[in-house]
Amino acid sequence: MSEPKQTGPLVDWQAVRTDYEDGNDSLEEICRRYSITRSGIAWRVRQQLWSPRRSQPEAQRPLIIKRMFRLLERQIKQLEENMTETGEKEVAVLGKLASTLEKLIDIDKAESPPKPPAQRKDMQELRNKLAQRIAQLKGI
Questions:
Q1: 3-state secondary structure of 44
Q2: What contacts 107, CB < 8 A, 6 or more positions away?
C-alpha cells in the first residue's frame, strides 16, 4: 500500500502524531489544524503503528468479562459451523474454551456482591413463634 498523495503544504506528521496520541484534541480539530483528512491520519496510524489515543476510557472488569463471554460464544458457534469431523484440534480448542469459561465464571462470581444466606425453615419457624409470643405479651 503506498502513501496517500500529498496535495498542499507539507505536513509535520510528527506533530500530528503527538497530538493524536495525546488524545487531548478531537480528530476533527487535528484535521482542521493541520489541513489533513481523517483517512490520512488513519493511514499513518495503521502504517506507522501509532499508539492508541489516550482519551479512550479505561477498561472495566465487568465489560471485559461480558466481551469475553461474547467472544467465547462466537468461537463456539464458529467451531460448530466448521466442524465436519471431531478432530484433535477441535477437541483441544473446545477444552481451552471450557477452561476459559470456567475461569470467567469464577471471576464473575468473585465480582458479584455476596448473596444473603437463604433462611432455613427452622429459623423462619422460630421467628414466627417469637413474633406470636411478643404479640401475646403485648396483649396482656
A1: helix
A2: 61, 65
Phi, psi (deg, nearest 5) at residue 97: -65, -40
Between CA 117 and CA 124 the distance in angstroms is 13
| CA dist., res. 121 & res. 48, Å (int) | 67
Dihedral (CA of 31, 36, 37, 38) sign: negative
> Is 0.70 topped by the overall pTM?
no
Q: Is the dihedral of CA 9, 54, 39, 26 positive or negative?
A: negative
Q: Which residue has the cell 470467567?
A: 104
Q: Where are the domains of the chain?
A: 1-56, 61-111
Closest to 41 in 3D by CA, of 68, 66, 18, 64: 18
- CA–CA separation, 43 vs 48, rounded Å? 8
> pLDDT tens digit string along 53-74?
765 556 666 777 777 778 778 8
